[in-house]
Design goal:
CATH architecture: Roll
CATH topology: 2,3-Dihydroxybiphenyl 1,2-Dioxygenase, domain 1
Bound molecules: fe (ii) ion
Largest sheet: 8 strands, mixed
CATH superfamily: 2,3-Dihydroxybiphenyl 1,2-Dioxygenase, domain 1
Strand content: 25-35%
Helix content: 10-25%
Radius of gyration: 18 Å
Number of helices: 5
Length: about 325
């Protein structure tokens, strides 16, 4: 029976690379685990990876910094809009002070009976730290955030939709979502096991124009679910394609994992990812060295110097 375990990673198109590193590492205290490039297209663009202490598949935020190439996007409806991260219960006062101390405006709200803190990435993408009581994923303490406050990983994704019905049907029928809740203009579904980052929150938005789906600064590019095995991933692809969602990609080798991508009816680009036996974050760096070297897939290795020269300098 095809299934999804929860999230695998979320990928954003952001602006300047250094501002992105500073936000995720110095402010949110995430662990920098990989410095490579976007594998698609011809323009050299960084692909940066951040995670919790263990690089759990459900705890990885990745970014394409586009400031140097000048590609901009538009936030809108029919688009993934909110990065939801899981923070320990009782930690949000700490985070309020920490974010404010870094001149980041934040706002405390309660949604689905959970307190959450709303703020933005420097490029404008909406973030929320959602308070969670029982989340076994280990936060990273190497960035200066104490263990009792450190971010566990992904909580889920917020998707703005003109009308939620088609996305609910897609999520229930093809992503195995359940545990549906409604509150105001928000519908929450859960994909996969608890505390594995699979919350999908559909926000009814009939006022904004549709958001852009291209690589564009200030937008979420896609959200990846964890399909766990290549066989399961293939079965999921077969079923989704057979239902008529033919806007689904072939299998792509992302070195650290293998993926297929499908445009969902809510507008969000959905990735079904599998960390396979030859992949994983430690396939080219030891667990201690993660993120310390500039990594390229074999097809780009011969162009290393040329590619690196076109990227921004960043200090981790
Ligand atoms: Fe991805």
């Amino acid at each position: 029976m095809p299934h999804l375990a929860g999230s695998h990673h979320v990928t954003l198109s952001v602006g300047a690379a250094q501002a992105d590193v500073d936000f995720h590492v110095a402010v949110l205290g995430l662990r920098f685990i990989k410095r490579t490039v976007l594998f698609d297209g011809s323009i050299p663009i960084y692909h940066l990876y951040y995670s919790n202490a263990d690089g759990d598949p459900s705890a990885v935020v990745t970014t394409f910094p586009l400031g140097k190439v000048g590609l901009t996007g538009r936030r809108g409806t029919n688009q993934a809009r909110e990065v939801l991260l899981s923070a320990p219960a009782g930690s949000l006062d700490y985070w309020n002070s920490r974010l404010t101390g870094h001149a980041i405006e934040c706002r405390s709200v309660t949604v689905f009976d959970r307190r959450r803190l709303l703020f933005r990435h420097p490029c404008g993408i909406e973030y929320a730290l959602v308070e969670v009581d029982q989340d076994p994923r280990r936060g990273y303490t190497g960035g200066g955030v104490p263990e009792e406050h450190a971010i566990h990983g992904i909580y889920g994704i917020g998707v703005h939709v003109a009308k939620p019905d088609n996305m609910v049907e897609f999520s229930d029928g093809h992503l195995g979502a359940g545990d549906t809740l409604e509150e105001g203009d928000r519908v929450r579904l859960v994909v996969g096991k608890p505390a594995q980052g699979g919350a999908v929150e559909l926000v009814v938005n009939r006022t904004d124009d549709p958001g852009t789906w291209t690589l564009g600064e200030g937008t979420i590019h896609h959200f990846a679910f964890n399909a766990e095995t290549l066989e399961n991933q293939d079965e999921l692809k077969f079923a989704i394609e057979g239902a008529g969602y033919t806007d689904i990609s072939e299998l792509k080798d992302r070195k650290y994992f293998k993926s297929v991508y499908v445009r969902s009816p809510g507008g969000m680009l959905v990735e079904l990812a599998v960390t396979h036996a030859e992949g994983g974050w430690t396939c080219d760096e030891s667990p201690k060295e993660l993120g310390t070297r500039f990594q390229l897939p074999s097809q780009f290795e011969a162009r290393r110097a040329e590619i690196f020269a076109q990227l921004e300098e960043i200090n981790i």
